Structure formats: structure tokens, C-alpha cells
Amino acid sequence: MKASIEDKVQTRIPTKHGEFILHYYSNSLDKKEHVAFVKGEVAGKEDVPVRIHSECFTGDVLGSRRCDCGEQLDMALDLINTAGCGVLIYLRQEGRGIGLLKKLQAYNLQDQGLDTVDANIKLGHLADERQYDIAALILNNLQVRSIELITNNPLKIDELTKLGIKVNNRIAIETRIHQDNLEYLKTKAERMSHMLSMPNSK
């Protein structure tokens, strides 16, 4: 069955990052509530700044310092607001797709010495199980012609390109490095090929 989405409702959301229109999507792939936060007119536009942000309850909501997710979310919304046009797609795929329970269990394994990749694998998962089909469908629904992707992750660029999205440029989104996220970011750079400026990274 071919995947499909439906833009069920749009509503104005004023935020500390500026005013956006929130689009709520239903879809045929899962029962999750994926949304798009849209700034300005994007239909028919080229080189639209786009952030595809996977849900991170601990980082986005609780402000956890174990990851860079919450800071990336804030930075992306600021960037899009400053540009006056753009899209932040919020995908409900917590913990790189393994869910909140498994992510918290992985945290405990990390506290015992495993990195984020090995912790996921020990729990019976892949290092990254996220998928971007719905993100591509949302961008097509919004009639975005091409994008500048706000990411450090080359896999996102590759996956979106395979799904028919024209990615014309990458916008880096590097956050502060501190003691609580250092090992997490090193693992991203060294084992997942994320494009990060790490101290003493290979």
C-alpha cells in the first residue's frame, strides 16, 4: 500500500521564536501525530530552510544535557524565523526510532560505559531506526520545490534524496559541547559520520 498523509488542521502558533502555522498530519503508515511548523509562504519555493527533527522528550521538553536535541530545536526555529520562511517537521520517532522506554534503558547502559550505538545494539536495535518517508510526504504536501536541510547528519540528506526531495544545500547546526554531551557528540562524529567540529575527533 502506498503511503499517504492528510493535512487535518492548521493553526497559528505564536512562540518565543516568532509566529508559525502548525500543520497536524494523519498518515497511513503509523498512528503517530507528526506535525510541521511552517514560517511564511513555502509553496512553490526553492531552497526553503528545513529542519527534520525527531522527537526527544528528555531533550526537547525536560532540557536534558545528555544530548543536543533541545538546543538544536531552538536553534532551528530561530534560524527559520530569521530567514522569514521555512519548515520544521517534528517526527514522533523518539530515541532514533526505538521509543522512550528503550531510550531510557539505553541511557542506563551508557552510564555503564557503552556508547549510544552499542547501547542500542545491546537492546536488540539498530544504531538508528528512523525513517523519513513521512517527512518527504509532508514536504510534497507543502509544495516545497527544493530545500536547504538544517542538519549535521549525512544520512538524512541521502534518505531524503532517495525519497525524491531535492536537497540543494546543508545548513550546519552545531550546539555547545560540555561534559554531559561530549561522549554523545563524539559518538555521532566518529561512529555515525555526523559533520561536527569535535575537539580531538578523528
From TrEMBL:
Q: Where is the GTP cyclohydrolase II domain?
A: 9-171
Q: What is the source species?
A: Methylomonas methanica
Q: Which residues bind GTP?
A: R51, I52, H53, S54, E55, Q72, E94, G95, R96, T116, T151, K156
Question: What high-level taxonomic lineage is stated for the organism?
Answer: Bacteria, Pseudomonadati, Pseudomonadota, Gammaproteobacteria, Methylococcales
A GO molecular function assigned to this protein is: 3,4-dihydroxy-2-butanone-4-phosphate synthase activity
Q: Does the entry feature the keyword Calcium, yes or no?
A: no
Cofactor requirement = Zn(2+)
Catalytic residue list: D128, R130
* Listed NCBIfam families: PRK00393.1, ribA
Q: How is the cofactor bound?
A: Binds 1 zinc ion per subunit.
Q: What class of enzyme is it?
A: hydrolase
- EC nos: 3.5.4.25
Q: Which residues are noted in the entry as Zn(2+)-binding?
A: C56, C67, C69
What domain of life?
A: Bacteria
The Gene Ontology biological process terms listed for this entry are: riboflavin biosynthetic process
What is catalysed by this protein? GTP + 4 H2O = 2,5-diamino-6-hydroxy-4-(5-phosphoribosylamino)-pyrimidine + formate + 2 phosphate + 3 H(+)
> Membrane-spanning residues where?
none
Q: What does this protein do?
A: Catalyzes the conversion of GTP to 2,5-diamino-6-ribosylamino-4(3H)-pyrimidinone 5'-phosphate (DARP), formate and pyrophosphate.
Q: Which family does it belong to?
A: Belongs to the GTP cyclohydrolase II family.
What is the recorded name of this protein?
GTP cyclohydrolase-2
Q: Which GO terms describe its cellular component?
A: cytosol
Q: Keywords of this protein's UniProt record, alphabetized?
A: GTP-binding, Hydrolase, Metal-binding, Nucleotide-binding, Riboflavin biosynthesis, Zinc
Task: State which pathway it belongs to.
Answer: Cofactor biosynthesis; riboflavin biosynthesis; 5-amino-6-(D-ribitylamino)uracil from GTP: step 1/4
